[in-house]
Amino acid sequence: MKSVRRALVAGLLGGALALTTACSSGGGGGSSDGGKTAESKAAASAAQIAITPKNGATDVKPSDGLKVSVASGKLSKVTVTDKDGKAVDGAISADGASWVPKAGLAVGSQYKVSAQAADDKGVVATAESSFSTLTPENTINFSDNLAKDGTYGVGMIVRLEFKKPVKNKDDVVKNITFEATDGSVVKGHWFGNQRIDFRPEKFWKSGTKVTVHYHLKSVEVAPDVYGARDLDESFTIGRDKESTVDASTHQMTVEKDGQVVQTIPISTGASEPESWRAYNGTMVIEAREGSAIMDSSTVPGLQGAPYKHPVPHSLRLTDSGTYVHGNNWSDSSVFGHENVSHGCVGLRDAPGDAGGDDTPAGKFYADSIIGDVVTVKNSVGNDVSPDNGLSGWNIDWKNW
């Protein structure tokens, strides 16, 4: 009897175990297959995202560009951050096929990219990448003719000079921008491969505030050579003062804000010898030098007896040595009647190296600032070269 009971219990346990095993096997198998199917659907987006530069890339040139693109789908979200976690501004194209940054990348930085795209069924694909840009071994520094928060005349031209030749001129220009409160459009003009001058189409308006942004640190200005730094410079345009020298009448007419305020007797470049003739054209005061040393040896081809002596109230107009300055050695009868200078515009001044403050030269000097316009007409001399000083106003806008 005990044997029958043991057999019965064993049979019942065996059946229960078999039943339990069968239920576990059936339920577990169904759950596992169902999970794999769901995962496959989630990962089966037809959208294929590509990120350039590739993940893990190093020493990337900023000019090589960052681009996110997708095939068989449309981008829905792209996030790019630099090493400081700052977002890189960019935009997805209208067709959703690509994303590019609005500005160039920075040198010596790391970037992280995260992108999402959906195929035509709405199934989302994601991709992530990171890369780093190069740190330049060679750089070119530059300088301009602006003083911090300076005030200049309406003829001011911003002159930017590089210490070494620039090859990628277009890339340089694209990364120099001007903000002017009067809305002026400013363009650059290259003189050679180390100097570029900037100006608006017409003279600045009085009171205009201007900020220049030199974003050149990440610009490849020549093969494997980058700009040395980024720099912002601000300046203000002061009152409008424009002077016109008529070499034939020996007079200089001074206008302020469009009104004639003074006519000053002058003496400008003599007709002979030829090297003494004054330039014609629009020039700009580029420096206030006070009592400057005039040295004939620094002017190639200048004829006549050599000289080297201080000249009072000197306002430089050209790199080659044209000035508006005080003349304290000629008889007062010369001014307004004769042209006797070596190419400069002379105003009557008092004896002594410093001249006199209460003279035509002294008063004109005191009232002049860098950027003031001085135009010479009716001289028998040549036209001033646009790259001689800040004389770029002698190039018409379409050729600037």
Automatic annotation (TrEMBL):
Signal sequence, renumbered to the chain: 1-18
Active site: H325, C344
Listed name of the protein: Ig-like domain-containing protein
The organism of origin for this protein: Kitasatospora cystarginea
Positions of the L,D-TPase catalytic domain: 241-377
Pathway info: Cell wall biogenesis; peptidoglycan biosynthesis
Presence of keyword Acetylation: no
Xref: InterPro entries: Big_10, LD-transpeptidase, LD_TPept_cat_dom, Transpep_catalytic_dom
Keywords in alphabetical order: Acyltransferase, Cell shape, Cell wall biogenesis/degradation, Peptidoglycan synthesis, Signal, Transferase
